[in-house]
Amino acid sequence: MLKSSEQDVQKVFTRRALVLAGGKLTLVGALAARLYYLQVIEAEKFELLSRDNQFNLELLPPIRGRILDRNGTPLADNQDNFRVEIVREQTDDVALTLDKLASIIEVQEWDVRRVLKDVKRKRAFVPVTVVENLTREEIARVAVNAPYLPGIRIEVGRSRRYPFGEAAVHVTGYVAAVSESELTGDPVLELPDFRIGKNGIEKSHDTEMRGTAGQRQVEVNAIGRIIRKLPGDEGQPGEDVRLTIDVELQRFANERLSRGLANRLPIDDPRGQLALGQASADVVEAHIDRATVLVDDDGAVVEPESGAAVVIDVHSGELLALSSVPGYDPNPFNHGLSAKDWERLLSNPRAPLNNKAITGQYPPGSTFKMLTCLAALDSGLANADTRFFCPGHLELGDTRFHCWKRPGHGWLDMKAALAQSCDVYMYELGKRLGIDKIHAMGKRLGLGSKLGIDLPGEREGLMPSRDWKLATRGVPWQQGETLVSSIGQGFVLTTPLQLATMTARMVNGGFKVEPTLVKRAATGGGDAAATFESTGLDPRHLEEIRTAMSEVVNGDRGTARGVQGADDDVKIGGKTGTAQVRRITMAERLAGITKNKDRPWGHRDHALFVGFGPVDAPRFAVATVVEHGGGGSSMAAPIASDILREAIRIDPLRGGLTRNGTSAADPVQEADQQGVTRSSGGTRG
Amino acid sequence: MAVNSFRSDGLNQPELTFGQKLTSLNWLLVLLITMIAAVGFLMLYSAANGDVYPWAVRHAVRYGVCLLVMVTIAMVDIRFWIKSAYIGYALVLALLLLVEVMGEIGMGAQRWIDLGVVQLQPSELMKIALVLALARFFHGFSYEEVGNPLNLLVPLLLIALPAVLVLRQPDLGTALMMLAGSGAIFFLAGVRIWKFMLVIAAGLGAIPIAWQFLRGYQKQRILTFLDPESDPLGSGYHILQSKIALGSGGMFGKGFLKGSQSHLNFLPEKQTDFIFTMLAEEFGMVGGLAMLGLYVLTIGYGFAIAIRCRSQFGRLVAMGVTTTLFLYLFINVAMVMGLIPVVGVPLPLISYGGTAMLTMMIGLGLLLGVSIHRDVRIARSGVDEE
């Protein structure tokens, strides 16, 4: 009984143990099957995931191409930016190390606080930047003390630098951090210190200057620490962009424009100090960070003028200067401009952010008169000897159109009419021509549409026509509007760039030069006939216009005879223009306010001048607009002629004078010595 | 003394001498166990990026000490173990209670007792103590007596006490292992199948209620197990990385010390719970299957020893220890392969960890002891020879 019971128990045990063993074997079989599934069937997928884990792609940002002027002087380049970093895991006491660092170089209190906060937030091996933009001397001090500064290391990055500051800012533009909307999916844009062109050449040639990023695989562990760097593709540095701009001429033009009719004195000059002491707060504000002060003949501080000047090679279309004042310093944009500084730039009534040479649209005023004359000559309605009588006004229907000279000019031929800028003569031509012919001539000379310059923001100006008027205003064209248009007022709007191009096309033998800003091998010859198509204008007509423009400057009664210069100066030709911004109101007239100087700045006339030189073999054309500058003769002509003569003087084709011939009294250089713009020294003698 | 064992049911069993015991020790099994521990040494060397410190050396030393413990246990007369089964159980239960009391001060999950020299995890020891206690209880029961439900109350209590304590720690994995191991002993002892069915049915019915009592992280683990990709950087991260490591190992592995997942720290807990993953990453499916093979052989030995034992106590102890070993292996490997939720169960003899190794080696010592004393007859009462 006992035995059988024990045997029963054993039998049950054996049977059930077999079942249990079978179950275990099945489960181990399931494990083996799972192993097979993961390691054979799914192996490829997991192999891929494992590589994804193991390797990260590291982008090596390419070095941005430079912007050079026509002589190879860098307008934008890259500067080594030395910074000090701290790595938490390499130092026992971050605060103590920072203390020691602060005894060697200057470390701001708030930087220390920021670092102490950052090192706690980031992983122990991630470096945190302590100070940026170190001088070489500071680097040397840190390097020498390195043994006492555990965890401190010096790293070098690159930041964009504009050695000429604001001098060429409207051409170069600037770079800044990539904004959300500019992300294209290109990963290099997502690098924290990557910069992208936001304006000017930096923007329009961004892609070619950017280059291509290199790539490198880095082996990383689970927390992102780099274990190993594998060799990779070094990438392609960006291309340099060489401009047609001559930076010295550009700086000359800027200075000359902003000076206007005033004298530039060093800010510590006693006369300057005296003048500043008497000036109002906002005028002083305008000079606060400048090394010089502008003082007029009466000893009062004046604000720098606002305007634009364009110098163009009449044969190649190359722009030697594209000046717009006031400007602004592009350097701070690299690290981000403060909201306050940005606000100040935006609210400045003289619009420093605008490149007035291509975005400013001004009535051309009398500078338009050559165009009216050319249209008359070209259509055969008049010739150079055609004479009209100017009684000081012209009646059309009920309306009386005045000449700027109330008593009238008397009998004039075309040359005299241009030289003395007679309005009535142009009214007579306009009346016979009609707006269609004027419009067509404007188009041939480059007005009313974009010239396709390599900069963002170029404006079209306006060359009015019957169709345009009907489409935009809904009423037909009036003949009176033709008369107003024939003297460059009314609807006509031009940019300084268009005026310079127009002038170049008139004096280069009649070729449709197009302004270019970027130097290209193909345009090196400067032979307009080979490069550009003809305007189809008769060379004799152009010759007559040129003679008349010479008369403006060199004739006894020319409106710009004041800028004739001495006998040994280069002879130039040109045309003045004064564009009315606002009519003088009856109230003002009654109060005796007819002079520009007595009116608020924004109400004053624009002063214009277009010119070319030398007269006998034209090389350059210039267009200058001084916003609310008053008269073309008094304000624009002296500025434009100085810039034009400087362009001719430093023209390497003329030989003789070299760049180093600049006199020591050159106000730009004086300003340079005062530290207005830094670090350009290398290019001058 | 193989000759002895085939003698007629001798009433006069001679006491085995120490020499006899030593020669009848199953040295092949000892070799198998040592091989598994050696694999552990290699993997811990790899886990430390090719260094015997900090894990491999201590693993080897522990194994050496545990080997002595194992052989010593194997030498002890099996009747000693049946006599002390309840006392051992009571002692370990007391330790568990102690942990429970100290746990109030610890950091959430308190499972350790610090004895100064070693840290002891009573829940691990309980797995073996429970096997001994249950085997002691069922020893001498006839099939009919086992069939009486009232007789099952005491063993159920034996299970329930430690299980509740372990659950309170909370250590769901160990509690489930205890239940499964005890279940196997119940099954082998002859408890009727329908009773198991009943318990399983009741258990399934209780799942919604039990869910309420699970801790947040336990719920999360189960949810994550059901859909690991849903949270690749959170709780699912471990299991996903483990699968990546396994899968990328492929057929033949990435090579010793060359597992990128393990060495770049994508693999969590590679020296403890996830050591099998590391092995399979570096040695591939071939290595993984070989490893499983070693365990299957060991378990097979255990089965053979159990079948050949003459006493019910020995049979149940041998099969209980074998089942415990199997449960460790299966839960750990199934977990790292994403077959079951993540529960903290080590790979026996390979994972770094003292108590788990000690527990397993004590168990294997008992198994070897059963093998040596397979012919020793034990009285029904378990105390005296009949």
Question: Care to give the gist of this entry?
Answer:
The complex is a heterodimer of chains A (685) and B (386). Chain A is of the alpha+beta class and 685 residues long.
Give structural notes.
The complex is a heterodimer of chains A (685) and B (386). Chain A is built from 25 helices and 21 strands. Chain A has 685 residues and is an alpha+beta fold. In chain A, a hairpin with a 5-residue loop joins β8 and β9 (226-229). Chain B has a two-stranded antiparallel sheet with strand order 1-2. Helix content of chain B is 68%, strand content 1%. The A-B interface holds A 5-6, 8-10, 12-14, 16-17, 20-21, 24-25, 27-28, 30-32, 34-36, 38-40, 42-43, 45-47, 49-51, 53-54, 219-223, 227 and B 141-144, 184, 187-190, 241, 243-251, 260-261, 264-266, 280, 284-285, 288-289, 292, 295-296, 299-300, 303, 306-307, 312, 315-316, 319, 323, 326, 329-330, 333-334, 337, 339.
Q: Number of DSSP strands of chain A? A: 21
What is the number of E strands of chain B? 2
- State Rg of chain A: 36 Å
Largest interface: A-B, 41 and 49 residues
| Share of helix of chain B, binned | 55-70%
How does the overall form of chain B come out from the CA principal axes? Answer: globular
SS summary, helix count of chain B = 16
Gross morphology of chain A is elongated
Helix/strand class of chain A: alpha+beta
| Largest sheet report of chain A | 5 strands, mixed
Task: Provide the residue-averaged pLDDT of chain A.
Answer: 86
Rg of chain B, nearest Å: 21 Å
Which whole number gives the mean pLDDT of chain B?
86
Give, in spatial order, the strands making up the sheet with the most strands of chain B: 1-2
Q: Helix count of chain A? A: 25
Please bin the fraction of helical residues of chain A. 25-40%
**Percent range for β-strand residues of chain B:** under 5%
Oligomeric organization of the protein chains: heterodimer
* Uncertain parts of chain A: 656-685
What is the string of helix and strand elements of chain B?
Answer: HHHHHEEHHHHHHHHHHH
Approximately what portion of the residues of chain A adopt beta-strand conformation?
15-25%
